[in-house]
User: What shape does this take?
Amino acid sequence: MFETGIFYAFAAVLLLSGLRVITARNPVHAALFLVLAFFTAAGIWLLLRAEFLALALVVVYVGAVMVLFLFVVMMLDINLERVREGFWRNLPVALVVGGIMVLEMISVLANRIWGTGSPRRLPADYSNTRELGHVLYTQYVYAFEIAAVILLVAIIAAIALTLRKRKDSRSQDPSEQARAKRSERVKLVSMPAEKE
Assistant: This one.
């Protein structure tokens, strides 16, 4: 009973924070609500005894992706009016995709509640992390390797895009500084002495 109450409390926080992610006007506030949603989802994973997925959610999404997203949002000068212009134009597609996702979640929950078959009893030394690793590196090893290659290509592309030469960037060239001569740096100017 206590665990069910915690689940419903976490689910309510998750729904409210998810709602605030899409309704917040400030992108930094939206990102912080998304961090709250990730933490709450990790708590729900812990309630379901999926410790590895909960830790991965916190480490990967909160620790890396959201911090990076916050830095990008705060460092870039985002024109919020231009971002809001496309909201009403994209709303029908967003509603269709959201409706499909809700139907999928309802079907999964309905199958779990009213589906046939009894739940499987797990042994005392069962580890979902071990089972996840076994399935990932045996049955889905090729998909895992393809995803790794795609992520590697994305990292290389991001680095290549940020290292390109831009006219507005300020940078120092150490070789130019080392080749500097005293005559180019220091200029002696003779000034008449002041008379009292």
